[in-house]
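debug: dumping io for the single-chain case to check the tokenizer round-trip. Nothing else runs in this session.
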Amino acid sequence: MSPQELMQRKANATPRGVGVMCTFFAERAKNAEIWDTEGKRYIDFAGGIGVLNTGHLHDKVQAAVAEQLNKFSHTCYQVVPYELYIDVAEKLNQLTPGNYAKKTAFYTTGAEAVENAVKIARAATGRPGIIAFGGGFHGRTLLGMALTGKVAPYKIGFGPFPSDVYHASFPNPLHGVSVAESLASIEKLFKYDIEASRVAAIIFEPVQGEGGFYAAPAEWVRELRRLCDSHGILLIADEVQAGFARTGKLFAMEHYDVTPDLMTLAKSMAGGFPISAVVGKAEIMDAPAPGGLGGTYAGSPLALAATKAVIEAIQEEKLLERANKLGDTLKETLNGLKTDIPQIADVRGLGAMIAVEFNKAGSHEPDTDFTKKVQNKALESGLILLTCGVHGNVVRFLFPLTIEDAVFDEALQKLIAALKA
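debug: decoded output
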């Protein structure tokens, strides 16, 4: 069946609200490459939106899931538990930043992890309020949308949203928001909207994902921790996109000299299998009553087996070092194009969580059209790219860290050609 026929079937069978970027359909994939139903090859720099740090069908992940599938696929952990859940919880308790007793609970999606982190924070503090930040993305559920600091396309037509959620400004010097101004915007919330004693948690992304790959300044994260401590507020680090080696550390919070009270994890955690987690201080994680946390598919045995394999692959294949090497090469390539491509306003990122932002030449005005053209030109040549940012003028790079050198070099040539075209 042709792609055109499949697109017509898609239009007839699925809602338009499920937006789809590509007009071809995947047939098979391996590591950083996808082949469509007509045999055309693509290099995948999207990684299923940051899910495939270890690539499509990593051998270890595939073998681990196959082995678990021969045992059992589901019991619901809350009904009949299994050791694998405990094994992976123990690993994450050990590997996540923070030298204190931790506990981990598993869920299925990033949004679900975020919602449960909020539940845990409210149970632990007895307070309702949550502060998030402009440009942040925390999921597509009602609470996730309430926390998300970007209206289009996520919030349009879906309100009203849950109450007691407030937004402060994320520090972004490129867009004129200093660390001091961001912190002042939180203090303004305490004056105008909600007293600090009613705030349960502040949630932030160490590196904003959908918001544009802006890394939180170390000074700001330090001040967030101090602010939370002074008011009895919990600090939640949303690492759904930044975790599992993407930033050159196993977790992005390792770039900072403070630790959060709770962390949310998902995406590349299981190499393409749906799972998420909340990891946090043991006494905080124990705040909800028995039965208050869980989910039918939470802690899927297949996804937990994949998670163990992903952690082993990151360690054995030295993917932290590889993330830094690949990210440095990409940044060097993009920075070298600034003279030829005056639309390049900024090249940034930690490890391999890299972005390039485009403004109209000679101005500070976001160039959304140029960004879209680069994405389309790249796709025509067989390179899949994702855009992001409040203005849609940022290209983000989420290639597998396991990508072969030759394939990475080929992708860079396609990227250069798309930029120059």
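debug: round-trip ok. The two ends are 32 Å apart (CA to CA).
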